[in-house]
Specification:
single chain, about 210 residues, alpha+beta, four-stranded antiparallel β-sheet, two-stranded parallel sheet
Length: about 210
């Protein structure tokens, strides 16, 4: 059995300058102000359209993240309908196989310390689940049958592609202190990357206690 932390990875190169210019070019059509485009005009233009709430303009750019988290959190992620998803399938992945290290991988809960009784009980439960999953496969059960005993804590990988407006919406909801702690853990990692690469588009989103 393996226990890992949740993680996120930007699945594409970001050319911030080209993204900004693309958004400005699209947005200025609305006002027929293309003649005002210059080498330095994009940042101010985009800041103004975000401040005014004209966020449909930023839908012209999409970004993809690879997210590694537990399956319970992906149930929340895929509720964001204005996005595209590709997810590791427990129907077809046989976790008893060599490419999975002949073991199950689980996501460490961010809300318990490893020396806490609750964490130790969680870990003990997963050890039993792993043992029984492997026994089911060995007895001839197909992966799609054996997966019926797999828990929310099972590690999964999901690619999520969304336009910039939807990423803003996602972050406003999922970085909230009211969000599930593990969902918030993932969202804060995404926020940090987006704010670092595209500050004009994401710095106005207020986040507390960013890791």
């Amino acid at each position: 059995m393996k226990i890992i932390d949740a993680s996120v990875e930007l699945a594409q190169e970001i050319d911030a300058e080209q993204i900004m210019k693309h958004i400005e070019r699209a947005g200025r059509v609305c006002y027929k102000s293309e003649s005002r485009i210059s080498d330095t005009s994009a940042e101010k233009f985009i800041a103004n359209i975000i401040k005014s709430g004209h966020e449909s303009v930023i839908e012209h750019v999409s970004l993809t993240f690879k997210i590694i988290c537990d399956r319970g959190i992906t149930h929340e992620i895929v509720r964001h309908r204005l996005a595209s998803y590709s997810q590791e399938s427990s129907r077809y992945c046989n976790y008893s196989g060599d490419k999975f290290g002949n073991e199950l991988t689980f996501i460490k809960p961010c809300f318990w310390r490893e020396d806490e009784e609750k964490y130790l009980l969680w870990k003990k439960t997963l050890e039993v689940i792993e043992q029984n999953y492997m026994a089911l496969i060995k007895s001839g059960a197909k992966p799609q049958e054996a997966r019926s005993i797999l828990p929310n804590s099972l590690k999964t990988e999901i690619f999520m592609t969304a336009n910039l407006r939807e990423w803003r919406h996602f972050l406003k909801l999922r970085t909230s202190q009211r969000a599930h702690p593990q969902m918030r853990e993932v969202a804060l990692k995404i926020y940090k990357i987006l704010k670092e690469n595209l500050p004009v588009l994401f710095s106005d989103i207020e986040v507390i206690d960013i890791a």
